[in-house]
Amino acid sequence: MPWAAPSRWTAQNTPDDADVLLNPPPDDLTDGWTPTGHVVDMVDHISGPAEDAQTSPASYQPEFEDPDVEAERILAVEAIVRNTMGPPEPSAAEIRRMQDRANAWHECPYTPERLAHINELTTRFYEARLPDSWAQPYLTERLRQDITGHPDIRPGYAPDTWTSLVQHLHRQGVTDDEMLSAGVAKVASTGRLIDRFRDRVVFPIAHRGQVLGFVARRNPAHSDEDKRGPKYLNTPETPLFHKGDQLYVIPSARNSEPVLVEGPLDAIAVTLAAGPSHYGMASLGTSLTLTQVAQLGRLSTTVTVATDADAAGRKAAERDFWLLAAMGVDPRCAHLPENSDPADLVLHQGADRLAEALRSAGSLGVRIFDEYSGSCHDPAVILHCARLIAALPPEEWRDRISDLASRNQLPVGLVKVALASMVRAWNTDPVKAAEQSALGTRTQPKADALRIAAKERAPATTYLRSRGVNR
To answer: N or C: which end of the chain has fewer CB within 10 A?
Structure first.
């Protein structure tokens, strides 16, 4: 049941003073009428001695001064605020970073078009070497279909050699310095220019028809002990490519609901399996960033999270929840079999099983809330659950308040008072509130924290006036 703002009297409910003056009652209005109750002389009543403390006007407290009623009123107003909030404006730090990125091009001797062209030449080189490599059957097995030559995915293979790409680009008229600026080559300890990617399946990261960089998976025959580099390797930071700003997405798949996953193979599996309803996107070997989430928020207000079904994946999903909620997105969560990921699900149970998991996704915030609130009665966990409620859409508040109170034998009114403070803090600065919650800021014991939340609330009059609501 959505949280509804309490009704208020308006000018339509009460007579206007001017109407009373212009249309006085008739003189015979009370003719023939006899009062049935005790008659009070109002003049004597007002000018007489003061009444006892229980009935004196000074002892009267308006109903909205009661903590429970005030909390209800605050939550109702904040629900209206929440439902009309847009995504937060970029912070000063984000604006400075964008300015720094723009200024970097003034120092770069090459244009964006030139670097994108070098990346395009590199993509074609890798594509041509995919057939007959280990990467082709590996991808076919993992995805249960051959994606060689796919016009949007454009998978490729970086040969297990030191300078194959460097020599190829030299023949195309690309200089050493241009390769370094584009990030497709690097300088070895010997001072020699060598290929950045070797013996890897490679996926281009494209945006608006331009290849910005690459993400490459290590040969699965090698492990971390073989010193072949990380499992996934990206293009380094260049004027064209910024890992924390970009997501791996198949370009043609942006007209449906995005699904956040942990790696490019999972993103491809989602896009291929879910058809027109969903498409996959993956962060590039790092945790999701606010910049990436801001891009997501501009693309869609609905996002499904399908991280790996293990402890690390669940932790990543919770962190994703806080960032997405701060941007006004209410994410959903796909339920995957334990210790699996989207590509594993396709491999072992087929594309239809993954598509069904995505279609039946439920609220990520509610799932996290249920996991915490049903686990124990630890005071810190109770407060964390309250913060989760504050980040959820208003229509979820009532049920979650009841759940938290009943599972921990707390008065419902006390939970409402604490939640009112947390909701107001979230609406004031959602990014700050989300960052604190994601870091697990759980400092106050249960009883003390709830008392403090009630004690620190703004008086009803001051608070409501600050929100533009008259008493």
So the answer is: N
